[in-house]
């Protein structure tokens, strides 16, 4: 373990002092596209996969292994939705140390992305602003790509409704979700129903109780035992959250992904040195306090009825551990990897084991919700 810790320290230092300053000179969307292409190439060959795992992975620790509804998670750190929109990195992400991943958001129809710029950095706040508006090549093309692929880690298909004017009609929006859902029934390890994208023309209509109920009735009618999570916004009020939890408890919903991006511009976590565009949702350290509060609330309110995937501003093992102690069963990240480097997943795994042992736990599940 000491060698892996040393390796992570060297890699993290190299990333933050050499690579990141170069990446951060260029437009963030171009860098993201470059990384996705590089990851796709690395994932295509056995040798490059092996070298990647030597550089970034760490041995699985039984303290971090969990099984939920027949899905095995060797470690609780997942890649969050939106990094791999078109499902091209499923072969390389296990070698980078992820215990599971989401692909998408996938929508029934392809969408080329919102007009104008899609991605900004907020370096002083350690955050990003995102305005892709659900850019992806569409459910048909993505399902064809994944068909018959055997995954090394659980892969969730993150489903949203196509970002176009027609789907603003609730019935058409629901049909759009269901069409994608059906296409991935044999492919997905589990599903994430994204009702909280902040960058679409329709707003977030499925945060409305009646619309959510109709959507979940339509999904219930599709027979599947695969776990279903709902991904919600960090900007919900307690009242909205209560209604969503009540409705979800009447349907085939196994858990919540807390949270998506924030639309708020009044947060104390926004450093005034950063330029913040008027459009887009904010990730990273800006959203972290909202996410943590929501994890604790959902945990307290649901009394074990729902699993929680905690996502928002995880940059270290300590961040990850705090979310677990507040009630998260699993975790996801994107922004932390961009700011800290691809050794972060291994750092978190090793750090989590140490933090758990220090507090006298023998398994990660014992720490879930302990602070709530
Ligand atoms: C570049 C980028 C694109 C994203 N696109 C999506 C998306 O398509 N669907 C989705 O559910 N969330 C999307 N998100 C939100 C993330 O999944 C996550 O909820 C959010 O970024 C908070 O986590 P983080 O602070 O670790 O990045 C995106 C985030 C980023 C950074």
Number-wise, the strands total 13
Low-confidence stretches: none
The name of the CATH topology is TIM Barrel
- Name the beta content range: 5-15%
Secondary structure class reads alpha/beta
Along the chain, the helix and strand elements come as: HHHEEEEEEHEHEHEHEEHEHEHH
The portion of residues assigned to helices is: 25-40%
What's the structural domain tally?
1
Profile the largest sheet.
Answer: 8 strands, parallel, barrel
CATH level-4 homologous superfamily: Aldolase class I
- The spatial strand order of the largest sheet comes to 3-4-7-8-9-10-12-13
What ligands are attached or bound here? flavin mononucleotide
Please state the average pLDDT score: 95
Distance between the termini: 32 Å
Task: Give the second-level CATH assignment, the architecture.
Answer: Alpha-Beta Barrel
Distinct helical segment count: 11
Radius of gyration: 19 Å
